[in-house]
Design a protein that fits this description.
Elements lengths: L9 E3 L4 E3 L2 H8 L3 E7 L4 H18 L10 E7 L4 H9 L6 E2 L6 H8 L7 E5 L5 E3 L3 H7 L4 H8 L22 H20 L1
Parallel strand pairs: 3-4, 4-5
Antiparallel strand pairs: 1-2, 1-5, 3-6, 6-7
Protein name: NXNL1 protein
């Protein structure tokens, strides 16, 4: 996905820090489903949809809601009329959002490439740049975070959260079925031990 933005500059929301080197871009976008959010702070439909997208993003990436952040990145592609409008809008959105700098000509190229005619539009891309959904705004509106597992499957993401072969800390579970598997293992182990004694 970093290849799509090769040679371009993205800004980190609220900090105005630029993410421009290939290594930084790779780290920000590697092995993630990428959402390109085309919107304008002045558009009434965007003003209604943006809080839904913010909640969607936060519920998938914030530690308050999830144990491990989903492999999701978002780049805001502004149709705002002024830099102040874009900046004010981004101040209300999650810190992890990236954005094209205001007035960047690359936004026109992205609009043409993905056929964005009206806003709000959320283009969903695989890590290799392949298209998953040309506009997922309605899907996000209807299904919320429940649509992410389908995107993750379509993107064939590598799971970054694997655990090493070690005992988990007391009280933590690897999955909802972990206690059942552990009990089955203990029963099988006890049965083998009993058979060995006879």
């Amino acid at each position: 996905m970093a290849a799509l933005f090769a040679g371009k500059i993205l800004t980190v929301n609220r900090e105005q820090d630029e993410v421009e080197t290939e290594r930084e871009l790779l780290r920000a976008l590697e092995n993630k489903v990428l959402l390109l959010y085309f919107a304008s702070a002045q558009c009434p439909r965007c003003r209604r949809f943006s809080p839904l997208l913010k909640e969607f993003f936060v519920r998938l990436t914030d530690e308050f809601y999830v144990e491990r952040a989903s492999q999701l990145a978002l780049v805001y592609v502004s149709r705002d009329e002024t830099e102040e409008q874009q900046s004010a809008f981004l101040q209300t959105m999650p810190r992890r959002w990236l954005a094209l700098p205001f007035g960047d000509a690359f936004k026109r190229e992205l609009e043409e490439r993905f056929g964005v005619a009206e806003v709000p539009a959320v283009v969903v891309l695989r890590p290799d740049g392949g298209l998953i959904a040309p506009n997922a705004a309605e899907e996000i509106r209807r299904r919320g975070p429940a649509c992410f597992p389908r995107w993750r499957e379509a993107a064939q993401l590598l799971d970054r959260g694997f655990l090493l072969a070690e005992e988990p800390e007391a009280g933590t579970r690897r999955s909802i079925t972990d206690p059942l598997r552990r009990r089955k293992y203990r029963l099988q182990k006890n049965k083998k031990e009993e058979e060995g004694e006879e």
